[in-house]
Specification:
The protein is an alpha/beta fold. The chain has helices spanning about 15-25, 40-50, 55-65, 80-90, 115-130, 165-185, 210-225, 250-265, 285-295, 335-340, 350-365; strands spanning about 5-10, 30-35, 65-70, 95, 135-140, 150, 190-195, 195-200, 235-240, 245, 250, 270-275, 280-285, 295-300, 310-315, 330-335, 375. The chain has 2 domains: about 5-195 and about 250-275, Rossmann fold, CATH 3.40.50.720; about 200-245 and about 280-330 and about 350-375, no CATH class. It is built from 11 helices and 17 strands. InterPro entries: FAR_NAD-bd, NAD(P)-bd_dom_sf.
Length: about 375
């Protein structure tokens, strides 16, 4: 495979550094699209590669293939003159957009962590160059919204926003729909990657963004702490859910490796949606077991329709309430698009021990939210 010129927006997201390292280690040249001082953004990414465990010589070698350029996603032509914009567009074979959650990664993402804003800014860049540039948008399988149990197909899935259950799902669904419409109307090459929930078993580090389950563990750590910040409250917590539910959890390193392989494949004009998911779903019982290992907590999943759950938490912190629908999910995801490219997701099994390792550092937080933890009753109809 000939080495490519690749642009990356969202290098500070949870996925960003892992995807950057995969692309760089394969010999491709990478340009970070930076919304602040390019030298600082470039230096920060190299520092994160070191934190991810790459030896100094490997980081040095990758630095030779890494560039950064300042862009303003809110301005015409990304804040540069038309000539400079056209030269930038002509430079790339591939443009990657890795939006981060604005809730979890404040101030560190391209276009403020709003997926549609990034897509609006970057698709014209990918489509206006002389090369047949391919645009890649990172999304999530949760963008499918609420679905009945069964297999979710890739075909046509990005055309509608579905029955979205929270703003995270809606934000990605809106962006996916825009990418699909733009590529269908213009013939631009555009690929939407709907991934499983990205996770890692790497120990928590303040300099690296956390994945979603670690963020939830941090919230739980604060919620269950006593006012002294030492001992934890012991709770038996009843929540509406299905003990047979399952989620698709995907180690982020496997996701980055798979996406790098997809980058090197040829893509036809027009939109394409593909599921980048673990071959095996993770039972919800395995996830609850990890939380019970980390906290003096017993999670009881009760069917929707129970009159009232025996113990629950009133005033669930923002973000934590959005988790409740996934405690009932039973979905599988078609992978025909990946199969057609000859690409397979190869990922380790996500065990309880894997999850504990990746959440333990975040769970050790002991700061108490203002007013302290509050135990009450939450209707089972949530």
């Amino acid at each position: 495979m000939t080495n490519m010129e690749i642009a990356l927006a969202g290098g500070a997201s949870f996925l960003g550094p892992r995807l950057a390292s995969e692309l760089l280690s394969r010999g491709h040249r990478l340009t970070l699209l930076a919304t602040r001082d390019p030298a600082v953004v470039r230096r920060r990414l190299l520092g994160r590669l070191a934190l991810l465990g790459y030896p100094p010589q490997s980081v040095l070698d990758m630095s030779d293939q890494l560039d950064a350029v300042y862009v303003d996603p809110q301005a015409p032509h990304l804040g540069m003159g038309r000539g400079a914009y056209e030269a930038l567009a002509d430079r790339f074979d591939v443009v990657w957009h890795c939006p981060a959650s604005p809730d979890f990664h404040q101030g560190c993402d391209f276009a403020g962590g709003v997926p549609a804003k990034g897509a609006h800014a970057l698709l014209p860049l990918a489509a206006s160059g002389e090369r047949p540039t391919v645009f890649h948008q990172v999304s999530t399988v949760f963008a499918h919204g609420a679905q009945p149990p069964g297999t979710v197909r890739e075909s046509g899935a990005a055309r509608t926003s579905g029955n979205c259950r929270n703003r995270h799902e809606r934000a990605h669904a809106d962006a996916d729909r825009y990418v699909h419409s733009y590529a269908a109307d213009t013939g631009a090459r555009a690929v939407v990657h709907r991934t499983g929930l990205l996770v890692t078993d790497m120990a928590d580090q303040p300099e690296l963004p956390r994945h979603g389950l670690a963020q939830i563990a941090a919230v739980a750590g604060r919620l269950l702490s006593t006012a002294e910040g030492g001992e934890r409250l012991s709770l038996s917590l009843g929540v509406p859910g299905d003990p047979e539910a399952r989620l698709n959890l995907l180690p982020v390193v496997a996701a980055a490796r798979t996406m790098a392989q997809v980058t090197e494949r040829a893509h036809e004009p027009g939109p394409q949606l593909m599921h980048v998911v673990h071959p095996r779903d993770t039972p919800i019982s395995r996830i609850t077991a990890a939380f019970e290992h980390l906290f003096p907590l017993r999670l009881l999943l009760r069917p929707t329709g129970s009159a009232h759950l025996p113990v629950d938490v009133r005033g669930i912190p923002q973000g934590l309430d959005a988790v409740l629908p996934y405690l009932r999910q039973r979905l599988s995801f078609d992978t025909g698009a990946l199969d057609s490219l000859g690409v397979r997701v190869r990922a380790p099994r996500v065990t309880t021990e894997y999850l504990v390792r990746g959440m333990k550092g975040a769970a050790m937080q002991s700061a108490v939210p203002e007013g302290g933890p509050h135990v009450g009753v939450l209707s089972a109809s949530v």
